[in-house]
Structure formats: structure tokens, C-alpha cells
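Protein 1 of 2
SEQ + STRUCT:
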Amino acid sequence: MSPASAEPESTLPRRLWRSPDPRSAYDVVIVGAGGHGLATAYYLARNHGITNVAVLDRGWLGLGNMGRNTTVIRSNYLWDDSAAIYEFSLKLWEGLQEELDADLLFSQRGVINLAHSLHDVREGMRRIGANRVNGPDAEWLTPSDLKELCPIINVSPDVRYPILGATLQRRGGIARHDRVAWGYAHGADALGVDIIQDCEVTGLEMLGGRVVGVRTSRGPIAAGSVALAAAGHTTVLAEMAGLRLPIQSYPLQALVSELMEPVLGQVIMSGAVHVYVSQAEKGELVMGAGRDTYNSYAQRGSVNIIERQMSAALQLFPIFNRVHVLRTWAGIVDVSPDASPIIGPTGVPNLYVNCGWGTGGFKATPASGWVYAHTIATGAPHELNAPFSLERFTTGLLVDEHGAAGVAH
């Protein structure tokens, strides 16, 4: 292209973040440039004035679960501690577009959890009561209410899993996952945080039993604190410090369809048949399914799980029977023994972990970053993540969200 025909510099797209070379030392090194790692870096800088921070990723920003989830946002969890942190997160979501000056395609279209049995109905009513006490909005829908709200859903009683009712959180919804990552990355970068991609952590530097830095594919980096935020791979990183975390990692299946005209205006979830579906802004159906039964870091689709998922989806939505699947994939869910996260110090000085979110990681992104940043900056947990310490597996003070979360992990 000749200089005369070159596009004016002012019309070129601006870079959202720098690509600096790593410095020799930082106050805080965060391992994992997904939503939680980037949000933590942003809130360290914004809330605590700690800007000498590096976020490292072995690949590119958003490579892991941040780009491999189904983007559902809700706070209607059963237990007090869970509802508190997810409701705080939802409130942050409600102002996040203005906060980051970014169009995140945040849509509070409502999240509906279906009830297919008397047990489901009782559990739904129980959760509505708990939500109303703890702050999240919640209401009950009869099958006719549901049909009025979502005309394409099948509420016939003559199916294998008839719909007996549903819970509704109107403030729940979806957001665009990559835009969330980009928004936090841009915000953190603007405050002075270094985001360093293609920088794999290969070891932790230890001195006198303390973590004092990381070894990477781009050289050693000293650190005052090292904060792990790498989902299921956090266990691999923690083992570099001799720490074994109670985390199991599984592939969680999902898929998207070809583009369609707008037909689905809510997020529909069914724990009994384990399918959840929403329609993205462009028109594709985004569907989540069950997890593989074996431990793995694989990110490929599993035909047997997808087949069961499609069978369930077509029962609920017969209108989808001619829709083509465009692609399938898996995200890596890291599941703790009580299906709740682990956020805080590890017992190894200067080493912090943020993991164990199971299927709840994306919706928790803002709150996770907020409380993790607080813990790293002050050396003490925020009141919202205090119940989710690693020590609870010794004390027995578990936050058991198996099933109570509204979807099986």
C-alpha cells in the first residue's frame, strides 16, 4: 500500500492492552489471564492502588474457560454464603459496562430453572424462600406462566420429563465472554498492569518455604505474592509448591447452533435432563450439557453427552428439530468436594489460590476478582470469601452446593 493510500492512523483500531516483555520482579504475579485473573488485576489496581502487577498466561488472553463457557449469569444459589457472593457479583455485573466503558452485551433476560418432579418443585420452592431472605430476586412460575413467558417451550404432560413449574430470576441473564475479558484487560492495562501472553509458568521459586517468584518460559520473575487463577490447572501449579489441592477436573460439554431468527428470550435450565440454553445476540443457540465422567483436561466435544443433550433439548423445544449444530467443545470445570470455590491463602506463605468454581466461574467473575484482590492486598479474606477458605476441608465447615446450585456439577 502506498503512503498516499494508507489508512489514516486515527481510523486504525486501537489496541486494548499492551504486550510488554516481563520485568524481573513484580509486587504480585497472577497466573492465568482469564476472567478471574484479569478481574483480580483490575481490582488490585483500582481498589487498592497496587499496579506493579503481572498477569501471565501460557497461551493468549481468554484461552481457557473464559472462552469456553455458556455465559450464564445468576445469583439464585441456596446457601447463604453462596448467595451472598453471587448476588454481589450480579450487582457488579449490573454496573460493569459503565465501569469498564465497554459493551459487554450484558442482557438481563431472566434465568429459568425447570422443575420436572415433586422433588424439583420442593427444591425450587425452598430455594425461592432462601433467595428472598438473602437478597436475590426469585419467583415461581406455573406451566401456564412459563408458556406465556416462553411460547416455544413444550409444557405437555405427555413427555418423559413433564414440566411441573419453574423458578425465575428476572435479573439473571448472559454477557459476551470475550468482551468481558477484553474489558477487564483494557481496564487493568490502563492502570499500569502488565498482561504477558505466551508466558508459561514452569515452576515456583521457593526460599525458606516461601514462594518468592515464578519460573517461566520467558525467564524467572520475582514476586512478593503469587496468585493462581488457572481453573483446573491450579492443581498442577500448586503441586510445584508441594501443595495438593482437593480439586477434580472434568470436561464440561457445550455447543452452539447455526444462526436463527430470535425465538428464545430467556435462559432455560433443566437440572433433571441437564441441558441449558440461551440465544446469543447474533442468533445462535448456546447450549450447555453434562460433564464427562472421567478426569481430563481435554477440550473436545463428547458425542455421547451431546447426543443426550440434544434429545433433552428437543423434548423441551420441538421447534429446534431441524437446527444444525455448528460446533462443540468442552471447558474444564474444577470441582471441590463441596462444589464451592476455594479463594484465599494456601498455608504456603505468599501463595494464593482461586479455584473450584465448578460450573459457576463465569457468573462469579466480578466478585471473584474483587474479593481475591482484597485478600491479596490486605493479607486477610474479604467477608464474602472467608467461608470459602481451604481450611474448611479440615474444620468441616463446608458450603455444600451439590444440587443446591440448581445444576449438577
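Protein 2 of 2
SEQ + STRUCT:
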Amino acid sequence: MSRRPAVVLLSGGLDSATALAVAREEGFDPYALSFQYGQRHALELDAARQVAAAGGAKDHVIATIDLRVFGGSALTSDIQVPKGRSLEDIGEGIPVTYVPARNTIFLSFALAWAEVLDARDVYIGVNVLDYSGYPDCRPEYIESFERMANLAVKAAVEGDWRLTVHTPLIALTKAQIIQLGTRLGVDYGLTSSCYDPDSDGRPFGLCDSCQLRLAGFEQAGLPDPLEYPVAHRSRS
């Protein structure tokens, strides 16, 4: 039985690597889509290439856009990346690592590729429990984008094509995501989560993303395969 195509947004991080594995587990041929968008942690694209290859992606496209022309985020400008915050502080408000409209932009590219591929499914690894308060990771946002997508493209207007945006991780804790990915054979040693790695690509372990990752592995009772030169998590 042939496998249906699905576009999977793949950053090279822990969550998107798990979403890729879930797409394959659910019977899809994943077409991985990553972005060089001017992010300071562009080394994640090396991770995305490795994850796509190891995860059985049918194809892997890296689209280039430049969100640094707008800035407005610690990831796309010279704003300092927060480090050493407690888990309680991470959970308060929308942090400066939020990139304006990033998921809307990424999902729009995924929609375009899905229509070309005649793929009716897109996977994105958004999460609302162990995340940093990003508004474009909420279920109501994803539902609204899906409704918009099915009004926006020729295939839907002229035929019976309908897009489904899958968010398999949206209600899972980081520990549950790690346990799920481990069961599906994800090699988290290939992933990159740090917002501000060193020049060799090694995570410092102090940014919000690293803090959430380290806490997730600790709560899952599993070792993080990455090496952290600093490697001490702020206390919750």
C-alpha cells in the first residue's frame, strides 16, 4: 500500500524531529521543510539535514527567507538571548525569542508545497505545555490557519482537496515528547535546541530552549545525548 505524502516542518530541534517520526509512524512519506530565515542559531540547519536523512524524509527542502530585515526578536536581531532563567520565569509572558509571525510564514510555505505535492497533510511540532508562551503555538491558532488554508488555494476551491494541520505534540509535556520520540527511534543526539550555541555548535545549556530540553530529559528519566560545556540547569 502506497504511503501518502505529508509536509513536515523541520527545524532540527527536538520537537520537530519527533513530529517527523510521528508522521512516518502514522503512514506518511514525510517531505521535510526547513528555513534559513536569518536566525542566529543557523547551525540547527545542519541538524535538520541529519534528522531528515535519519528520519526517512522523502525529500528535504531548505527555503531561504530573511526575517532579519524586520528584526524584532532575539533570534533575528542583536537583542540578547535570555539565559539562566528559572522554569517559572520561562513560563511567564511572551519572551524576546518570539519571532513575529514565524509559524504563519512557515505554515504558508508548507501549504504551498503541500498543494504542489497534492499532499493533504502538514505536520508541525508545536506544543503549549512546555513551551515559552509563543502565541502561534496555540490550538486555536492552528485551527484558524487550517480554516484559512482551505479557503486560500486552487486545489481546495476547484476540487475536494482539504488540508489537515497535524499537531501531535501539542498537549504533551517535554518529557512525554522525549519518551514518544525515544519509542519511535529518534536519535536526539542529531538534534539542536540551543538558541545561542558556541562557534562549534555546542549548546551552552542556559537559554530557555536548553532549560526546557534539559528539564524534559530529567523528568523522562533519560540522559540528554548532547554535551553541554556549561550544562547546569536553573532551578525551578
